[in-house]
From TrEMBL:
Superkingdom of this protein's organism: Bacteria
Ranges annotated as spanning the membrane: none
Name of the protein described by the UniProt record: Fibronectin-binding domain-containing protein
Entry's Gene Ontology molecular function annotations: ribosomal large subunit binding; tRNA binding
Lineage start: Bacteria, Bacillati, Chloroflexota, Caldilineae, Caldilineales
GO CC annotations, alphabetized: RQC complex
Region (Disordered): 401-421
InterPro entries: NFACT_RNA-bd (IPR008532), RQC_Subunit_NEMF (IPR051608)
Domain NFACT RNA-binding as annotated: residue spans: 509-607
Amino acid sequence: MHFDALTLAAVADELKKTVAGGRVQQIVLPDSRSVALEIYAHRARRYLLLSAHPQASRVHLLEHKPRRGVPKETPLLLLLRKYVRSARLESVELPAPFERVLFLRFHHPQHDVTTLAVEPIGQLGNLILMNADGRILDALVRVPAGENAQRVLLPRRVYQLPPPQNRLPPYDGSVERHEETGRYPVDRDDASQAQTPLLWRSLLNRFAGVSPTLAREAAWRATGDAGAALTEQAFTDGRRALGELWSAAATGEWTPGIAVDEQEGVAAFAPYELHFCGEFVEMDSMSAAAAAFYAAQARDSSSSRDEYAGVRGGVAALVRQAQARVESQLRALDADEPAPGEPERVRAQAEWLLALSSQINYANRPGAQDGFSLQDGMAAVESAPNGQMQLVIFAADADFGQPGDKKPGEEGGDLTVPLDPKRTPVEQAERMFDRAAKMERAARIIPRRRASLEADRAYLQQLESDLGLALDQPEIVAVREALREAGYLRQRRDRREKAPRDRSRPLRYLSPEGFPILVGRNARQNELVTFSEAGRDDLWLHVRDGPGAHVVIRCGGQPVPELTLNVAARLAAWHSGQRGNGGVGVVITPRRLVTRMAGGRPGQVHYRGEETISVTAELPAESEQWLAARDH
């Protein structure tokens, strides 16, 4: 994870000088998780990439105009074209210190002010468009309300910043206070190092806005060794080095560049000089450094040999197709679901219209005016602003049953019923009763259907993660068969043709303290690990807010040492979509508090009573001896 909060601060400074004040001319989607803006500023066209890609979330300028990579228009793209295209980029802001969140505020001549929140937070990366009141118009990745959602990101909801990190600020002008709270700061993540915790891990886990790259550089500047052991003096010096690196955010004195390694090529990039990895090459801008790094990563990825690339790509297309179908169905539900209180309002309109139907006169009857007239003191027929006649019941109460305490004309005090000149009041009331009944049925059915579709969406995300982590062809084929069993692919025409059996087994490890650890690598194995092989009193682990492996520590209710707990959490983070990230949340709970999701797919569960710890999703070289003890 190289694109950290300090890098984002450097990019923000660059954008303030290059594109702030410019006008957005075009908007394209280079891929399904990215948006590119063409901005005309300072007599030049510039191209700004905003990516929420799980493995490469970032923000930076591009040298060349990006191509459209998504053939279909998405809801977010349509809203961006409406509110952001032709708008002026008024400001570039960092709303939360030490967080990877960037606000781009636009002013449109017709639609006033909108804000595009860019959150390049790895697996949780997102792009959220909101109006002037801070209400969400749409998000690239919608996050519904759920038992594990830390915040809801849905249209019409008020936007909230990501939950603050429970860590110390890396730079606030005060060293003494942090030294006092940071003596011998052995964190849980350092427990895997047994008696020799590392300085950079302590900095990573204790201070906000710190990535593994930044922590290792601070450790190198403090001790001359990025892998130095943690001591009181090393921590004090590392804390000071961290503050000096972060001081560039206040001074604007950046040194953007890349680290070039003979073996790995472009190994890293940063807004400061790197010493611990490769040869540092200074670049003209932070965007140029980031673009060089990700371009090299793309070349390495395309040139790396994947003997299963063909079959993997085919199954990936099937997963994307299934995901598109689920998203389409969710959008259809959003369009069909009545607003809260709407069925009751329509039914009340129908009841009032039916009750007063005998007193409503038509134009072809004596005494009628403007098409309708009414002889009643509690209601009247009036002309609406659009010219249509409407029945107005004065001061209807909240239950719409009889006149209430509100005065006529008071906001919310009158109930209006549009009148249809082509139908009698009784005919119109009957149609409105039918409409209210349909809306009531929809209000009952749609929430259940949405919950089912959201479970399907989570399952497809799990299959997508399984496919990316699959090591051989049988595991890839197992993902395709899981799609078939879930109903996203046609069943085999010849029933005698048997599907290839997934014979892969969960990984089995033995911790240094002798505790067996089971790791499921796909949805089927997750089901097996949790509900067939784990005991009720064993410990269950899973990465928070994302797809990943079910991990079980076979402890039988015995206390689990810190080292075993930490290593199992790392395995859960490594075998997930957040592989390679730092500060990954992993939940831990007894297996007896994990239950199958009613009507869910294999491996989908509910859990409660959990504790969350933060680990780095990587397998360090020091753990090779431990990994060699796994039981095949």
